[in-house]
Amino acid sequence: MKQFWRIGLVSLGLLFLVACGGTAVIPDSISKVDGKEISDATVKRVVSEWQSTARKGLETGTVKPETIVETTYQSSADLTAVADYYNKALGTGGWIYHTRTPGLQDGFFLAAYEHGTKSLVIGAIDMTKFAGSGTFVYVLSGDK
After folding, report:
1. Are 117 and 144 in contact (CB under 8 A)?
2. Mean pLDDT taken over the chain
3. At residue 17, does pLDDT exceed 50?
């Protein structure tokens, strides 16, 4: 539970995310599993906060609200595989990682990237910590 307070505080830091991100390719989902819903209240609360603060952060960073795209999915891959997948795909795709985000931590992954005029936020939660399986992934992007 303590780690989720940390997640909340870090999420607030996304309010200050200044978007500088262009025409860049956002990687497809990794090992997506269809039809799964979040049932844990703590996870729902964290995801809801990410959705709120990340959107505000992008808009504060001059991202046009009409360009914001938000997706969520459940992955059968573990949290480390999800983090590695996005870090590798985005790194080789020319995206720049925002060091103000925590990256991979115990039980969660939260990172922000930019490429030209495009901004991207990836959040992921290890569902095995909540009697689930796989990883819940949140992806938010937008253009200046």
Report:
1. yes
2. 81
3. no
DSSP per-residue codes, the chain:
-HHHHHHHHHHHHGGGPPP-----PPPPPSSEETT-----HHHHHHHHHHHHHHHHHHHHTT--GGG-EEEEEEESS-HHHHHHHHHHHHHHTT-EE-TTS-EEETTEEEEEEEETTEEEEEEEEEGGGGT--SEEEEEEEEE-
Q: Which two three-digit tokens encode residue 79?
A: 């949290």
Indicate yes or no: pTM above 0.70. yes
Mean pLDDT, residues 17-25: 50
Q: Name the phi and psi angles at 76, rounded to 5.
A: -80, -10
Q: At what angle do helices 41-60 and 2-13 cross, to 10 degrees?
A: 20
